[in-house]
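Form 7-S
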Amino acid sequence: MKKILWILLLHIPILTHGQGHEASLRAIYDTELSSGHTYENLRYLCKEIGNRLSGSPGAAAAVEWTKQLMESYGFDTVYLQPVMVPHWERGGNDVVRVVNSIKYGTISLTALALGNTQGTGPNGVVSQVVEVRGLSELQALGSRVNGKIVFFNGPMDPTMVDAFAAYSRAVGQRSSGAAEAAKLGAIGTIVRSMNNQIDDFAHTGNQRYAPNVPTIPALAISTEDAELLSDLLEDQPDLQLYLESHGEMKSEKLSYNVIGELRGTEKPEEIIAVGGHLDSWDVGEGAHDDGAGCMQGIEVLRLYKQLEWKPKRTLRAVMWMNEENGLRGGQEYARVAKERGEKHIAAIESDSGGFLPIGFSSTGTNAQRAKLSSWAGLLQPYQLWNLQKLGGGADIGPLSDQGTLLIGLLPDSQRYFRYHHTAADVFEVVDRRELELGAAAMAALVYLIDREGAN
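Output:
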């Protein structure tokens, strides 16, 4: 321990005298990997507060705790930004049951209602089920789904190496499947969970109803049960399902984005925002999605404090509220920034899990992306090799109107969808070293932008 502290002390005079970026990045990694707070902070968020759906007591507790946490680190300013958020409650156990299987009789499937879904009521609904592989197959069936339950069974493409690309291709059946099926007279939908492996966890997630269309129940079943149901339908096309859910949209609630700030010493009007979304779904603990990103964002500013650095530009750690079922926090943050005439030169979001970082995605001008690429030689020693992918983040997307360079932390994507929107997304499935490497990567990039600008 004495040796580690001596190494860190040796770094500080080098950094305060403004010598090379290599030494500064090395100090960030040395500090985070030897004495970082990211992992312990995530443990508290997950274990002491738990899941944090917008409008819930958990979300309110997370707002207060993250505010107190950033105040305890001595950030220059910590404040709450009010935002009205939707308030959906699951309301009870979700049920999907095969009721007339010739082979097995009655079978209960592992299920979760999708977010913002109106429940069936206590008596549920029963009808014949029709399987489709996606929205285009649904449209081809047309009125033949009238009065029936539509089963969306389009898997994430296992041949796509980028799991997020596979998710993006498949997720439309979850987000708009119920609305499209209702237009054709369906009375309910179930969807294969957005998962790139076969297991028995159901994955929730947001779905959106369409105006002037019936709000039919929409639930997800596990990939294991989706395979089973598809096999049963092949042998028995008249198979019937019973659906029961209890979801209800309540009145909107007042919540907050939580913002901590270190004021810039040379160009305080130029802002670099970094963080994740504080809300999570109401199952699991929201560890990877997105407690990890929030704690990494706070850690960036904490590292500046521990290393006794004064930023040239203003740094903000932002905990956005309501990414999961409304995106109100990101929209309100951008609206207020525009109203105040704030200039965000860059925004970095971590919302792809606390896994091993391999680079950064980005969206911006050619000059902005070229600037990011110019740091490849500095970032590659830390295995941050992928700087070419397009992307940013949902919460920072609304900042694009002001010409902000939008950046997403890019972890290895292969394991993320085991946990995404499930009861399995708990603290214990986060690897400490991978989480800390992500925090260090974000701090390294913030440091480079702070020193050199974003174009």
